[in-house]
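Narrative progress, year one. The postdoctoral researcher (J.K.) led the effort to move from monomer predictions toward full complexes, under supervision of the PI. The following entry was the first complex the group processed end to end, covering 605 residues in total.
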Amino acid sequence: MTLVEIRGLSKQFKKGDEVIKPVHELDLDIELGDFVSLMGPSGTGKSTLLNLISGIDKPNAGTIHVEGIEITRLSRGQLADWRAANLGYIFQTHNLVPVLSAYENVELPTLLLRLSAAERRRRVELALEAVGLTDRAGHYPRQLSGGQEQRVGIARAIVANPKVIVADEPTGSLDSETSQQIQVLLQRLNREFNMTMVMVTHDPDVAKLASRRLRMVGGRLRVED
Amino acid sequence: MFPFAPYVLKSLSRHRARTLLTISGTAVAIFAFCMVEAVQQGLKRLTSDEDAKRTLIVFQENRFCPTSSRLPEDYARAIAKLPGVNSVMPVQVWTNNCRASLDIIVFNGAPPDQLRTARNLKLLSGTWEQFAAKRDGAIIGQSVANRRGLKAGSQFTIGEISVNVVGIFTSPIPSEENLIFTSLAFLQLSRGMEAAGLVTQHEVFLNRGADPGTVASNIDSILKTGPVATTTRPKGAFQTSTLSDLVDLIGFAHWLGYASVGLILSLVATTMFMSVHDRMKEHAVLQVLGMRPSRVFQIVLAESVILCAIGGCAGTLISLLLLSWGGLAIGAEGVTIAFRPSVYLACSSIAVSIGIGIIAGIVPAIQTARVEIVGVLRDS
C-alpha cells in the first residue's frame, strides 16, 4: 500500500541572481512500513525534500499525498494539525525543550491530540520504554548524554503513533558507539512496529539500515545499489 | 491552553533573574499607578459625591484661607430661616498649614449635638456624651489617629491648641477621617484664635428637592446687608476652588500614571522580545511537532500576561496595604483629600496590568507564530 505519493515535486529559491533547484520534478512512492534513506552531498536537496514531506516547507510545483491527503494544499494551521496526528520528526540536534523533563518532552506531541490523561501517560511510558529511557523520565536535557537526548527525541517522534517518521541525520551529531545504538533503535522501530521511515544521512553505514536507499542527484532521486 | 501551562510557567522561570526583574519593575510601576489613581479618586469623591452636591459652604466673600474668613456665628439663624434649608452648622476651622501638606492637621470646631446629627460619624471609641461634656475634648478621625498614633485618653497638642482625645471616629466620607472635631466654643476661645462669636464658615444642609444654586444666591443676597458679605457655594465647588492649585497638580500627576503604564509596556515588551528571540528555534520545533501558530501565539501572549499580572497584583497589593494602613491624605486650606483603597482601584489596576500584558505580548507573539520554520531551523 502506497503511503506517500509524490508527483512532479519542485522547489526552487533564489540566491542572489542564481536560481537554485534543490528538488526538480521529483516523483517518489513510499510504501507503508518502508524504511527509505536519502543520501547525497550537502546542498543536493535531501533536507529540502524531507521538509516538504513534513509539510514545514511548501513546494513551487507538484503534489504530495500522504494516505490520500494532499498535504501540499493544506494551510499552515491544517498542516500543523496534520503533523501532530501523522508525522514524527527526529532532528539531528535533538531539539528538546530545555525546561521540560524527558517525560514532559515526550508528552508534548500528545498534548496536541485529543487524548485522556491516562492515555497520554500510557503512550509516553510506552515510548520511553521503547527507547530504553524509563529510568531517565524525570531528567532534564542538560542531565542527559547526547545519545540519551537523541533517544528522547526519538520517543517524542513515535509517541503519537505517526504514520510517517522523518529523520534528518539522526546520528549526525553522535559518536560512533552512540550512533550504533541509535541505528539499532531505528531499525527495531521499523521492523517491530512497522513504522514508515524516511531518513536523511551522510553515513553509508547508516543508510544500509534502510530497505530502500536513494540518492539525490540534480534535484531528482536515483536508486542506490 | 491549559495543558501547556507547565510549559509556560517553566519558560518564565528559565530566566529567573529576567523574570523577577520584569515582575518587580511592573510591581513598582503599578504601585505608582495605584497611588496616582487613589489621589484622583480621592479628589473625585471630594468634589462630586452626594455630600459635595447637597451641602453648601458659606464663606466670607473674597476670602479663600480659613484663617481669613470670619463670619458672625449668628448668621446661622438667618440662613436657617431660608426656604430649602434643613439645618445650619457653624464651623470654626483651624489648620497647622495653609499650603499643600501631606501631614496637615485640621481642627473643625462645631456644636457637638449638631455635629452628631449632621455628620454620619461612627465612634470607634469614646461616646458623644463624653465629647459634649469635656470642654477640651476632641474626637479624632481614624486616619489622623493612625498617622499620629493617637487613641482615646491621649493628649494632643499642636501649636497653641491642646486637646484631650475622647474618641476615634470613622466616616463614610474618607476625607473627614483626616479631621479633628472639637466643640465650637473651645476652638473659638483657644489662645490666638480671638474668635468669640465668629466662625470660619457655615455648613448648610439642604432639604430634599431644594436647588443648591437658588439657596446659595438667596443666602448671599440676605447677608449682603450684614457686617460681612458672603460667598456661598456647593461644598464640592468650594473644595475644588480651595484646592485649585492642588487640583492642577493632581491633574498633572495623572500623566505620571500614564507614564507608569508606558514604563511597564516598554519593560514587558523588551522582556518578551528578548525571550522570544532566544527561543525562536524552540517555537519553530513546537510547530514542527504539530503546534498550530495560533497556539504558539497564545503561549507567548500568556507569558506576557502572566508577567504583568503577577507584577500588577504585587504592586496593587502593596499600594492597597499602604493606603489602608497609612491613612495618607494631602490637603490645603483646611480641606483634605484622602487616599483610600477601593475595590475599583484594585480591579482597575489589575485590569490595566493585564491589558498591558496583552499589548506588550502581541507583537512578539505574532512574530513567533509567523516564524519561517525551515529558515529558523536552518539558521540555528
